[in-house]
Amino acid sequence: MLDQYIGVVITFALGAVIVLGMVSGSMIFGARSTSRRAVKDEVFECGNPSSGPARGRFSVHFYLVAILFIVFDVEVVFMYPWAIVFRQLGVPGLIEMLTFVAILGFGLAYVWRRGALAWD
Amino acid sequence: MIVPTEWALMLSAVLFAIGVIGVLVRRNVIVIFMAIELMLNAVNLSFVALARARGAVDGQVVVFFVMTVAAAEAAVGLAIIIASFRNRTTVNADELALLRG
Amino acid sequence: MGLIEVGIAGAKAFAVLMLVLHMSAVLLWVERKGSALIQDRIGANRANIFGVMPVNLGLINTLVADPLKLLTKEDVVPAGADKLLHFLAPFLAVFPVMVTFAAIPFGDQLVIGGHTINLQVAGLDIGILYVLAMSSLAVYGVVLGGWASNSRWALLGAIRGSAQMISYEIAMGLALIGAVMTFGTLDMQAIARAQGHHFFGLIPAWGVFYQPLAFLVFLIAGIAETKRVPFDLPEGESELISGYFTEYSGMKQAAFMLSDFAESVVVAGLATTLFFGAWQVPLLFRDGFHLPGGAIVALPHLAVVGLQIASFTVKVFALCVFQILVRWTLPRYRYDQVMDLGWKYLLPLALANMLVTGIVIVLLG
Amino acid sequence: MGAALFLLVAALTVVAALGVILHPNPVKSALFLVVTLFLLAAVFVLLEAHMIAALQIIVYAGAIMVLFLFVIMLLNLRNDDPERGRRRYVLRGLAWIGGVALAIELALLVRGASVGSAGSAPAGYGGAAAVARSLYTDFLLPFELTSILLLAAVVGAVVLAQKQRRPTLS
Description:
Chain C has helices at residues 3-38, 59-71, 83-100, 127-137, 139-148, 152-183, 188-194, 207-210, 212-225, 237-240, 250-275, 301-329, 335-363, and strands spanning 109-112, 115-118, 198-199, 203-204, 284-285, 288-290, 296-298. Chain C has a three-stranded antiparallel β-sheet, with no helix packed on it. Chain C contains 13 helices and seven strands.
């Protein structure tokens, strides 16, 4: 079974070399400016003066999306093994999964109703 | 290509201890949380190693459930951190003695 | 496991990585010239080699001049940026996308000198989960690119981009479950082989005929994952300059561009494998074409393998071009529309598709 | 060869895990944890838990850690302040000594225990089908309870994180 992963390891190694070479390309071959670093190193805002500190806080909505993502990701992950064997499980297996989805569907409905999915 | 079970269990022990140290040493609630995740993973590792030693997959199924619990825990735990940060503007565990009144 | 096997695996890995890279580059050209065609412009046509190219289609612009130009650009890291993460982010954006292709089969098997070579870099039993795992890591490039830049707009783009990517990952995963249920395996080579028979000896039994809805959901979610028009909110020029890679220049910026195109190629590769018969050519079997009347046109082994690889490449490329057509036809969505589409339409649709598939398969025996 | 590979991955895992608890910047800490989780997935592969390895990356590295990063960025956390004061130093020292002692003790315990090592695993061990058969027959009740746990997590997290709509009196 482990032989399957030789290809993965080799792809990882080759891919890392290629991508690292690419990303560092401009650092090696690129031009270097010597003067006026202060202006050049400013954050780019289309020539306008910087609009303030960068790492301000942002809407809690994005965080809610991430929470929902985690929960549904786990749900999806539970479905993959089921999708492999559901033929052998037959009708009971189907009912198991329907119950599972129904309970989580209730969660989705709650979040929906509460307005956590609404962007205003 | 067989990994000795003892080695995997030792790695698990070391990771668990690192998690414990992290919980004790750090004061940032989120980093403490991450150290707890590390401890959970150490336990997962020993489940997987022992499942392999027994040649049965039930240990792996338990890991499945541990992951689910970790996901639920992360969702709620981080929500608590956000809610408390909103009131106290800190994530320092020493200053977050919420239940002390 | 001898040296030969490792060598063969290395050659396959190299070939596949080059396929992704070059297809992304050609795709960039298709996008530039294609968008020009759609918008009634001329498009890239400047670069030429001493005026010797008789018909200038902008190929030199896109494939030679631009990479050279980017290579010689100064690498600017803004003040206050985290230097290490600023370097790591473009790597993390491209790398997971490129290695995803390791699990995608690009041909059946090649028999040379007593070796039977499976034309797939890594024949993983859990192939689809590997693909999902790698594509779930691509979000780090976006998040870190924005965070490390120390720029407000970059961070906003990164947050938008990652929220969008994770939202559509759910719909994508659910859509793939429909296909997995149809074939009953996660092994992508087995899925490819399962699509080898024909209805009435004529119509190939491709996944899209079993799971049209899953294909639709997968394709929309896939386009959204690539973060390009009409889902280019993370880099919407009129709002965020260019989003999470605003503060990148030279090859680092090119890497972010490449990651978008490579994602398109991966989405097309996955769609081809699961819904369009992977490397299957209609009516072509291991010994040649089986025509409907029962006649057999025998072909040598190498020709069959060549046709399969060509078929895979053509299908992937066609799906890539289709994605570009979609991009240049539709206008940009608003952010709430993007999130609504993912959570309120595609997610329930994919769930329903999965449940209906399950009920149909179980009840039909 | 598998054993040598394991030692290499294990060493890297420990280094990354130490990075999690030692780096003062929470974002870097989180990234070290991502690396640790990824390497643990490799360890799982070496222990022939193929399915679990993929899930480890999908659920932990690809989902849970994204949420951690989101929260760190949402709260705009910077480096931890260096801690001063003799009491603090003493406590930290004690924590380190205790932790190292715990690691040594657990390792010795494991060495003494005879867990035995099965030979080569049966075909399909650790694959999706094998895990699924166990999960959907022997572990059916926990599986259904999982959905209730996740439901509770969604509701709880949304209630906690979303701002109250109604204005409060205070």
